[in-house]
Amino acid sequence: MSEILRVENLKKSYDGFVAVNGVSFSVAKGELKALIGPNGAGKSTCFNMLMGQLKPTEGEVFFEGERITGHKPRDIWRRGVGRTFQITGTYQSMTVIENVQMALMSHHCRIFSFGARAWKLYREEAFEFLETVAMQDQADRPCSILAYGDLKRLELAIALCHRPRLLLMDEPTAGMAPSARVALMQLVADIVRDQGVSVLFTEHDMDVVFAHSHHIMVLNRGELIADGDATAVRNNPQVQEVYLGGGTLFMEETHA
Amino acid sequence: MAFLFAQFLTGLANAAALFLVASGLSLIFGVTRIVNFAHGSFYMLGAFIGIYLMEILPGAVGFWGAIVLTGLAVGLIGAVVEMVVLRPIYRAPELFQLVATFGVILVIQDLALMIWGAEDRLGPRAPGLRGVWRIFGEPVPKYDIILIAITPFILFALWYLITKTRLGVLVRAATQDREMVGALGVNQAWLFTGVFALGSALAGWGGALQLPKGGADLLMDFNIIGAVFVVVVIGGMGSLPGAFIASVLISVLNVFGVTYLPQSTLVLMFVVMAVVLIIRPYGLLGREEVAGEHGQVGAPETPIRPYGPVGQALVAALMLVLALLPLFADQFMLILTIDMVIFALFAASLHFILGSGGLVSFGHAAFFGGGAYAAALLVFHTDTPMELAFLFAPLAAGLLALGIGWFCIRLTGVYFAMLTLAFSQLVWSLAFQWRAVTRGDDGLVNIWPAEWLSGTETYYYFALILGVGGILFLRHVIHSPFGYALRAGRDSPRQAEATGIDVKRVQFVAFALAGAMAGLAGGIFVFAKGSVFPTELEIAKSFDALIVVFLGGVKTLAGGVVGASFMTVVEDWLTRLEYWRLLLGLVIIAVVILMPEGIVGTLRTLWRRIRNTDEERV
Predict the structure, then answer these.
(1) ipTM more than 0.95?
(2) Which of A31, A102, A216, B425 could be a cystine partner for A233, CB 3.0 to 4.6 Å?
């Protein structure tokens, strides 16, 4: 499998505090890869550096072999990287489908178009994306009255609009009910399988992580302590130390 | 050297009152998020009440006692204003409250006129501090030295109050997160009232303290408010030491400006502010305002749609009435309608960037007056044909907006508002003081339309077509992909940037477009009146537009137009009366309290409620 994203020695420090310290990894094409770690491990900081919201202090990020370190989020998006956020940032004054249409208008480079009626543009295409995440019934509801789980799904639909080859999802299921979490991640797994999109996501729910991801990376205090498949990560003593203080829950699970 | 030092001391002494007023404004803004335009009025009240008390209280004890009592009195007035006017509207959209405070300005102005009369009053000298002390041979008034000596104590007292006391902890907590403070069991209502009273009291003390150096007059409210905003912004919103440094900076610069660059006095402080904001976008000691940090206030905006058949029919009917108006209306009615159309277009252009873009401009008059002046200057100096000069109005205003926008767009929130204010003051002072070209406050006269447009009726149609055309064009843009991108950047800049939208560039283009449309309104204006004066560039003109946009309803598309029409008619009625400011102020306050979503927004909510109850019955 060839790699789509490569990160080399990524580092971010704030006035002496090192949030991310020399992280290197890669994501292969068609891979669903999880980045886990305790709160404050540096997961979101990592994501923000990948997508350009933060400038790394050191290190490089390559997307499809091209250097994207420190580029603006919108440039990285145009190259084919999608992103969802830990706290959703949808457009509250628009309807659900208009949120998707907005991303489509941007994708089709119609931002500086003054003539057309925006609410008619790319409506059918937007509807299809809403169907992908099973939100078509709520297409014309105002975005401001959506339930949180629905917002998360809408955000996923928006992120898929420009047919990204890599999707970065920061805690895609945070704040959702357990059954909805599983359903959403199943949806993501299906998209990975059907469309060949690579996904890198962070997550706190270990059920979700171990059920769906091909590979798992563990971040602790800004440093990558494990990178491998589920079994390898489970059996990694350092990971067990970090997560359970030397407990044996993972072990029991594997025996079970 | 000695002279310079004496000058410097005068500046320091002037800083005392400025710092007091500015720290009050900063405090109120920090906790309640209210941009209190009426703060200058409390300062003026402080001056008048101070004089009154000093006359009845004798001696040195009476003098200082009067100052202390004045602050308490003004604080009490502030508390009443907060409870009666502001408390009902905290849930309204952000910045809506500034409309109410504008109403308070008008009310206080006329009340002061009623009570104390129109004459300027000289402040009494401080007992025992009448003479001068010689410092390096230069005379420095004793009272100045006293002021310089007590200002650090005031700073220290405020600093102590904010950082060391329980009240201060609450105030700082509320500045960061109002909701959380409320959740922790603090009675927000009383905290707000208390802070507002304290802020007002500080303004009152400022007004009373400056009495021996100045006096009291009815213009001092507007005269100081500009300087106070500048100080607060240069220092950094919410920073007391920042406000202190900025007060000293501005006061000292002013003293030297008067001596060495008298023609620059009007604009000097705004130039300083512009430079500071361009180098340090959040003021000297301020910190970045994170968007959405203070939470969304009020109901979210509803999705927009172009009018359906009913709405279109209503607009068409209105157009028909306007088109047929010359058949049955008199000359006066036509002129009033032209004024209305001009103001509506001006307001619609501000509403475009404010409503859809979330960019609150405090200096939109720069483009209205700029357009008017551009056309007038061409006609006046080069005898350009009217048609050509008229086209130049939106063009020049658009270019001006490109220039100003280039500096302003990088800022957000209140800092953006203040920088636009600074630039509009620059443009105003140019028109006011560059007499060789603009003829200063004599204005440019004899700017009449071309022969074929000269009749009132013909010009009415000209104004109607271009004015309404401009408004419809802006509405069309709001519904276009560009308009959507503008709203996207306002709703969630992070999401917009993460989906390929260059938010700042979209805002920049929108700002220029709004400027050009305001310039168009200015063009129609100048040929309707035949003249233009610097008043068209004044802060008051910018505020007029701001007020009507909020009155009409920020979160509605028709808000600007409806607000402007409403205001034109109301003003036309009221200005015939003696105390029209008082009445206008009361009308504004009443509208604000009764219709917290603006005229259009509240009517829409009512309409929905009526329809819903009908449906329930069925």
Answers:
(1) no
(2) A216
